[in-house]
Amino acid sequence: MVMVPDETISIRSVGVVVSDFKECSRTYDYHRESMIYMREDLTDALIGLKSFSHMHVIYFQHQRSEWLKLMNGPTDQPPTTLTKASEPARQGIYTTRSPSRPSAIGSCVVEIIKCEENRIYVKGLDAIDGTPVLDIKVYIPQYDAFPFAQVPLNWAMDKELISTSRYLHWDTINVGLTIGLRTGSKALQVLGIRRGEAVKAEVVGSHFFAQGVEGATGCSVLGNNMSFKESNTSPGQWKIKLLGKEGEVEIRLKDHIYSGAGEVLAVDEKRLFASVQTTENT
């Protein structure tokens, strides 16, 4: 029988967040800049940090109870932190990015703006003013980015493009999403229609690939005009079929492992697509 240790673990903070983000909120602006004030005795440990563009920040959610009150409203019962209402179904906290973890430990990848002695100025840190910082670690794309990492179709889609982009790591790693956007856009171009005018999409590929097709065409599983078959193989097994009122097009991808979204955006269509076949409705 496996026993989980239940003793209390004591950790000394390495720094503190200094921010104009003063209280818990349901939303957060990831353009916001803040500062991490590190312990002065750790100043030498920061040598070389300014050469990196991003880093991980591990922090203690010291206002966790306030966030729970905000989300649950006044109640005589102790709020639960194990599940969260979500569409299309309830989720466990460990399948969300909730700012109230059972351990009260939060984490975030931030952009490093500048370093001055023991002060680190960052962008995108979703921790409020006064948050104790437990650790920082440099972000290394070769180790920390996984182009074919998957999430459910309903996860991380937000009305604000900046939030969606950040959740999906659009700028740096999301190959599948980018391929889906290009493939969906190509299908619309071939059929001579615009977003929202397709009758149905049939998609075989990764979740992110399907999300890209959805973003380009407007067809979706939740909208009942997309059928999706998950295939976590390389792009050589991925394809879409897009049906319009006057015809349909089927596009298959060439088998290639891309280094990042930038490469997908720059690659010629002849290298991206294995075939583009159209059929007119009779």
Write the topology of this structure.
Elements: E1 15-18, E2 33-38, E3 54-60, H1 64-72, E4 83-84, E5 91-92, E6 105-116, E7 119-123, E8 132-138, H2 141-144, H3 161-167, H4 175-191, E9 200-205, H5 207-217, E10 226-230, E11 239-243, E12 247-253, H6 261-266, H7 269-272, E13 273-280
Q: What would you note in describing this structure?
A:
The protein has 282 residues and is an alpha+beta fold. The protein is 21% helix and 27% strand. The protein has seven helices and 13 strands. It has helices at 64-72, 141-144, 161-167, 175-191, 207-217, 261-266, 269-272, and strands spanning 15-18, 33-38, 54-60, 83-84, 91-92, 105-116, 119-123, 132-138, 200-205, 226-230, 239-243, 247-253, 273-280. The strands form three sheets. The chain has a six-stranded antiparallel β-barrel. It has a five-stranded mixed beta sheet with strand order 10-9-11-12-13. It has a two-stranded antiparallel ribbon with strand order 4-5. β6 and β7 (119-123) form a beta hairpin. α4 runs parallel beside α5. The radius of gyration is 23 Å and the shape is elongated.
